[in-house]
Amino acid sequence: MLCYCVSLLEHFVFTIFIVAVGHVWHKEGLDGILRILINLLKTLPGFEYIIQQVLSSEVKSFTKQMKGSEGEGRPVKVKLPEKGIPRDQLLTEMEKLKGEQKPKKGKLFAYIFTKDDETFRLQQKAYDLFTEKTGMNPEHDQLIRLFYEAFMHENALNPLMFPNLRRFENEIISMTSEMMHGDHDVVGSLTSGGTESILMAMKVYRDRARKLWPRIKHPQMVAPITIHPAHEKAAHYFGFEIIHVPVGNDFIPDVDDYERAITPNTIALLASAPQYCHGIVDPIEEISDIAIKKGLPLHVDSCFGGFMLPWVEKLGYPVPKYDFRLPGVTSISADVHKYGYSSKGASVILYRNSELRKYQIFAYSRWPGGLFGSPSMAGSRPGGLIASAWVALMSLGVSGYMEMAKKLMDTTNKLKDGINRIESLHILGKPHMTSFAIGSHDPDVDIMVVGDVMERGGWRVERQLSPESLHCTILPSHIAVVEELLQALKTAVMEVKSQKGQVRSGSSAMYGMVAKIPEKTIIDDFIVEFFNEVYKM
Ligand SMILES: *Cc1c(COP(=O)(O)O)cnc(C)c1O
């Protein structure tokens, strides 16, 4: 009986199959039948591996041919130069690379939209005012601008069209990977900023989980509560949930709490080096062990610290391990447009191997406009940003970054010491690099009101919640104002203390209200309304 049922079922399935094939044949002809056959074959064990091998050898011979025809044979592995490359040499190289770029004027029909060729001409401008404000070396800033302008109309949308942009990008990835102790397998992409880097890593882990663990219908990731909101944005866009682990009085999550937050639905682990709020590096060494034990990938958000922590460590300060030296770390985001001192719009996302990066790349082959592929969120990718990120790294080199890190750490230490000496104020936890948060332990000194007073004096210190504090990221422009800043804080504290119970104004008042409302979705709605209003004409 059972046997009969099975054979009936088989017969039934077979009939359906024949009907389906007939249908497809009628609708799509031979192509449709081939599609069905390939999909059937794909279900056979081992077949996908064979397809992968054939594909990869085809792609290799194709790219070899393409690169060969451009006469490009430069090695890809590039280390950040020990000493920055001299400016004149870089400018000569820029002229050469610009001229080398294919195709020539009037022969290109996509990618570059520019009104007139005049914009290609380099302009010398007065940069002094700007650089005086930012505290950056004026020559560095001018170099960034010159490279930006030289490549600002070029487009990295097609990696074969502008080989110099591809070279810049590969070299930036390579140099950053070296800083993060990556080996030869580490690959990455240049993106428009920390958020895009994070979005890409989160998409990789979601898509990887869909493939490896199709049973998971409600994917989760685990992160300390201090993780940057860009990860929440990714969760919102890509449909997963972040489980938050609280932090202790030292602003570090308890590792056991962290491990307990992992469920059968967990698809990736997250941590920061350092987190933005208090400048503290998460216990990534321990989280890496958990990742290995549980067989989960681990993303380290080093957007803030990626271009600062390596130098802080080299200067001899204690920095917990956070990069590819830890075997559990599978990806790292690091912003070139923060302490890499490039222009805004540049960040690096690194993966331990290309198997992971594959999940980042979008491909679409059915467009009448041709085969379409794109490595990241953006379609057109501005060449100027890639070129200026490259020249920032090349011109500073290890010695340039170390020199800046030393100055900024000295400034940070002077400020932290000075603030800890101000009665009522203290630094939250033990920050690892060039930022910190200021709190008050004096019931008569409302730290948010201190923020208000500072703001009236022209100082823009960011307000933070739970616990309430003021955030400071130390930038080159602060090197010259240490005493002035400490004095302003002292005066502000005295003013608040002398008029006990001063009421909060502006954003401080709003933060006070927010802290009291337990239902945060109301506040989320409020924020949405705020943006709606702000962008009205
Ligand atoms: C700045 C920052 C980000 C987001 O980067 P954007 O460049 O602003 O998109 C993410 N994480 C941390 C820790 C950051 O400091």
UniProtKB/TrEMBL annotation:
GO cellular component: endoplasmic reticulum membrane
Membrane protein topology class: Single-pass membrane protein
Residues where N6-(pyridoxal phosphate)lysine is found: 338
InterPro entries documented for this protein: GrpII_AminoAcid_Decarb (IPR050477), PyrdxlP-dep_de-COase (IPR002129), PyrdxlP-dep_Trfase (IPR015424), PyrdxlP-dep_Trfase_major (IPR015421), PyrdxlP-dep_Trfase_small (IPR015422)
Names of the cofactor(s): pyridoxal 5'-phosphate
Main location class: endoplasmic reticulum
Pathway: Lipid metabolism; sphingolipid metabolism; Sphingolipid metabolism
A Pfam family the protein falls into: Pyridoxal_deC
GO molecular function per UniProt: pyridoxal phosphate binding; sphinganine-1-phosphate aldolase activity
EC number: 4.1.2.27
Subcellular location: Endoplasmic reticulum membrane
Alphabetical keyword list: Endoplasmic reticulum, Lipid metabolism, Lyase, Membrane, Pyridoxal phosphate, Sphingolipid metabolism, Transmembrane, Transmembrane helix
GO biological process, any: carboxylic acid metabolic process
Statement: the UniProt record of this protein carries the keyword Cell inner membrane: no
Membership in a protein family: Belongs to the group II decarboxylase family. Sphingosine-1-phosphate lyase subfamily.
Protein name: sphinganine-1-phosphate aldolase
Organism: Paralvinella palmiformis
